[in-house]
Structures are given as structure tokens and as C-alpha cells.
């Protein structure tokens, strides 16, 4: 079966519009009543096209282009989030027009060129639409979601299959899924996708903060090696990437929320296991600013719950842009606006971490300097759940556990805005606990492990200064800013 790659926003695909007008520009002028329809179909097409690329970038990347593929995939993923929000906006709130809009949405999703696998991308927008749908549309959306749920069980092995009997070797995909992605990659390889996105996605351009792991390698003899080590030390002071944590210790982090449905579900699971995490939040999910002042707030009760349950929060920019592509004042504003919203929601207390996570992990020395300017520390990750790219909870769980075993320690990147992350999380935690991992959390000034560190005092003393053993007494006060690593 051939799966055609839809071209994005190609007006000629929309036959009614084509019959009446000639081209998108004319369409806008002569057929305004058709533009909403075309918009919906174009957005649905674009979502499927982006999702196909994400899956190819994940599975067809070569060792040489994996980092770039990950950045490009995250960019496409975020584009799809925005398209999904825009589809919801098209749906509107008006009960008189909503059924008609939903019908158009449904017709666009039912396009015969889409495979069942393609339609997995509609799960998020459908779930988000449910609360505002009338009885008939609700039933339709429910049936679609049930079909997608059933499909995921067909495409991926279930949790136990994913981990038994020899857990970390085979990837938990069915042949059907593997064939599907292989077919997509034949249509457009990861190399082709990356060259198409070359002008859009921040190229390499990682900050020197990625240097620490390289600095311990063979190195360059003489002075350059020393300079490299010093640069790496400075970079480590500006940024954590998980390598700082003690052996078999993990820090759970959740990005892009808060989300009214999925964040509470994540909190329930963490509470069940008695674990704490850091939530890196996007400012616009917390509210709006006017003339530099908070003018509207969102998710206030949810934010209170996160804090009350002992979790910590960090800044993840206001609009989630690729910061290295912005001017320095724009970078400053992205950081400052979210900082003001965090100040508003959580003025003081141990939940404030003084950390910043660059969207897409995209940062360069200029962005890092700006983060430091705000008194914040950049926090990256070394274990990517790829829950943004993977529709299968079993596969997400498998990836996290495999990466944790491979790296032996680290900061885990997840997103509290997906049902699949919520579904994967209990299995992730169970598996990691069974394998003897423990979890770190932020106590207001340090990262601490949730169980006593099994290290001799001499070794404990060698830990970085921002890490404290769990048995260490808590600081007298709860400063809002973390203790700076000695530079
Ligand atoms: Zn993000």
C-alpha cells in the first residue's frame, strides 16, 4: 500500500475551493465562507505530514544526524501542537456552528489517503475537543479515540512484552508499525527531511555546555586540553545535563505544561509512588502580560497543587521558541515574562528552582549568557523519553528504561501534555524501581536523592556542591534561588 506524503498547505488539494476559485489568494477574496473549511483541511493535512516526518526522523536517523533529527522532530512536534490548538480554535465555542465545524474536521480526518497509523496524530486534538462537543459529536469523537486506542495495542507490544523476558534488547514495536515507518522513510528519508527543514530549524549551534562529556575523552595534548577542560567546567556550572547525578539516580522532569487534564494525572501517579519532579512550564500556560505586568492568569489551582505536593517548577520560556534564532532582547523577554508569571503564581518557597530549560534544548553561548543574566541555571537532559514523537506508551517506557540503564544516571525529559506519557509513567517508575534506580528531587536549594546514598563518606564528599545526600539536614530557610555551583 502506498502512503502518499501530503504537501503542506497545497490549496489545489481542496477540490470544492478549486472549482469555485483558482488558488488560495483568490479563494480568500471570493469565497470567504470556504476559507474555514480549507483551513481545517490544510491544518489536518499539515499535522499528518509533520507527524510522518517526526516518525521518520526518530526511526531513520543515522548516528551522524541523530542530534539534528531530534531537534527537527521536536520543532515539528511543537508545530503540530500549535496546529492542534488552531484546529480547536476553528471549532469555536458556539453550539450553533460547532456541529458543522466538527463535521468538516471529521471529513478532513477521514481523508482516504490517510492510513490508520497517520490518524494517531489526531488523538490529542480530539481529546481536547471532547469537553465542548454536543452529544452527537461527542459520540463520534469517542468512537474515533477508541479506534486509535485499539490501534496502539495492535502496533506496540504491551508493557510486559516490552520488558520480558530479556527486557532491553528488542524494541516493542509490531512488524506492522516497523513496516509503516519504513515505508514513510522510503518516501522521504531523514536526510531529505533535514535538508528541507535546514532554514527553519536551529542548526547544530549547541552551546559549549555540551562539552563536559567530550572533555573527559582522549582530548588534545597540551594547553588546548586544559582550555577545553576549563571551558567544560564553566559550562557545567551554567548547565546541568544529568551527568552530575550520583550513580543510578534519576531526576524526572516534565515540560510544556501545565495542562488541565494531563498534569493532574501525572501528579496522581507521582503521589502514588511518593516521587517528586521538576515541571518546566511554558509561560503562556500560566497567564498573560501587558506592559510587563501580569494581566491574566491560567491554571492557578493546578499550580497551587503542584507546589503543595512538593514538586518544583522551572522556566521554559513564554512561547517556546528556538531561542538562538531570536535577538537578545527577545530572548530576554521570553525568560523575563515567564519569570514574572512564576513570581506571581509561586512568589517564594522551595518549589522555586531558579532553573531554565531552553525549548528544544536549543541554546548557544549567547542564550546561556542571557539565562545566567537572569540568575537562572540551564537544565538539559540526557534521557529523552521521546514522548513527543512516540505514540506508543510501551515504547516510551522501554526507551526511558533502556536509556537509564545505558547512562546509569540522569535527567529524564517527559511532557505532561500527552495522554501517552501518563499511560507510560507508572510502568516507567515500576521498572526503574525494580532495577534499583532512585529518584532525585529539588528540596529548595539542592537536588537530593529520595533514598540514602549508598556511598562511603569520602565519596559523598566528592559530590558536586549542589547535590546533597538525603540525610543531610535541610537548609534553615528556603531560598528561592539555588545555591550557585562554585565556579
Ligand atoms: Zn518544551
Automatic annotation (TrEMBL):
InterPro entries attached to this UniProt entry: Glyco_hydro/deAcase_b/a-brl, NODB_dom, Polysacc_deacetylase_ArnD
Signal peptide extent: 1-38
Whether Signal counts among this entry's keywords is yes
Per UniProt, residues of the NodB homology domain are 248-440
* Stretches the record annotates as Disordered: 200-223
Protein keywords? Hydrolase, Metal-binding, Signal
Judging by the UniProt lineage, the source's domain of life is: Bacteria
UniProt cross-references to Pfam families, sorted A to Z: Polysacc_deac_1 (PF01522)
Please report the name of this protein according to its UniProt entry.
Answer: Polysaccharide deacetylase family protein
Amino acid at each position: 500500500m502506498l502512503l502518499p506524503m501530503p504537501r503542506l498547505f497545497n490549496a489545489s488539494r481542496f477540490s470544492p475551493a478549486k472549482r469555485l476559485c483558482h488558488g488560495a489568494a483568490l479563494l480568500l477574496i471570493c469565497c470567504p465562507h470556504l476559507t474555514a473549511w480549507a483551513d481545517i483541511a490544510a491544518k489536518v493535512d499539515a499535522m499528518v505530514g509533520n507527524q510522518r516526518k517526526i516518525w521518520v526522523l526518530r526511526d531513520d536517523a543515522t548516528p551522524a544526524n541523530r542530534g539534528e533529527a531530534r531537534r527537527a522532530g521536536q520543532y515539528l512536534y511543537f508545530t503540530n501542537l500549535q496546529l492542534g490548538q488552531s484546529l480547536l480554535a476553528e471549532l469555536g465555542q458556539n453550539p450553533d456552528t460547532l456541529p458543522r465545524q466538527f463535521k468538516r474536521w471529521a471529513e478532513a480526518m477521514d481523508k482516504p489517503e490517510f492510513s490508520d497509523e497517520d490518524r494517531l496524530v489526531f488523538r490529542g486534538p480530539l481529546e481536547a475537543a471532547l469537553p465542548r462537543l454536543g452529544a452527537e459529536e461527542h459520540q463520534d469523537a469517542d468512537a474515533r479515540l477508541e479506534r486509535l486506542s485499539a490501534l496502539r495495542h495492535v502496533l506496540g507490544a504491551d508493557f510486559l512484552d516490552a520488558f520480558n523476558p530479556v527486557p532491553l534488547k528488542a524494541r516493542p514495536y509490531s512488524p506492522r508499525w516497523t513496516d509503516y515507518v519504513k515505508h514513510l522513510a522510503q518516501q522521504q528519508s531523514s536526510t531529505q527531511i533535514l535538508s528541507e527543514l535546514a532554514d527553519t530549524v536551529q542548526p547544530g549551534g549547541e552551546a559549549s555546555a555540551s562539552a563536559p562529556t567530550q572533555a573527559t575523552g582522549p582530548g588534545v595534548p597540551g594547553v588546548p586540553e586544559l582550555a577545553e577542560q576549563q571551558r567544560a567546567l564553566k559550562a557545567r556550572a551554567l548547565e546541568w545535563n544529568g551527568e552530575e547525578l550520583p550513580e543510578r539516580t534519576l531526576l524526572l522532569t516534565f515540560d510544556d505544561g501545565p495542562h488541565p487534564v494531563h498534569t493532574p494525572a501525572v501528579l496522581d501517579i507521582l503521589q502514588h509512588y511518593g516521587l517528586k519532579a521538576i515541571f518546566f512550564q511554558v509561560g503562556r500556560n500560566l497567564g498573560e502580560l501587558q506592559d510587563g505586568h501580569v494581566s491574566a492568569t491560567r491554571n492557578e489551582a493546578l499550580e497551587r497543587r503542584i507546589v503543595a505536593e512538593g514538586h518544583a517548577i522551572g522556566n521554559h520560556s513564554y512561547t517556546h521558541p528556538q531561542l538562538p534564532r531570536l535577538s537578545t532582547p527577545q530572548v530576554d523577554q521570553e525568560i523575563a515574562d515567564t519569570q514574572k508569571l512564576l513570581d506571581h503564581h509561586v512568589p517564594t518557597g522551595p518549589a522555586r528552582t531558579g532553573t531554565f530549560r531552553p525549548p528544544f534544548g536549543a541554546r548557544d553561548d549567547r542564550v546561556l549568557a542571557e539565562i545566567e543574566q537572569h540568575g537562572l541555571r540551564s537544565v538539559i537532559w540526557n534521557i529523552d523519553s521521546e514522548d513527543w514523537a512516540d505514540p506508543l506508551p510501551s515504547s516510551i517506557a522501554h526507551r526511558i528504561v533502556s536509556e537509564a540503564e545505558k547512562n546509569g544516571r540522569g535527567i529524564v525529559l517527559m511532557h505532561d501534555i500527552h495522554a501517552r506519557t501518563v499511560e507510560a509513567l507508572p510502568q516507567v517508575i515500576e521498572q526503574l524501581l525494580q532495577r534499583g534506580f532512585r529518584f532525585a528531587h529539588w528540596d529548595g536549594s539542592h537536588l537530593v536523592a529520595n533514598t540514602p546514598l549508598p556511598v562511603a563518606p569520602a565519596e559523598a564528599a566528592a559530590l558536586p556542591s549542589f547535590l546533597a545526600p538525603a540525610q543531610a539536614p535541610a537548609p534553615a530557610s528556603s531560598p528561592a534561588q539555588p545555591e550557585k555551583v562554585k565556579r
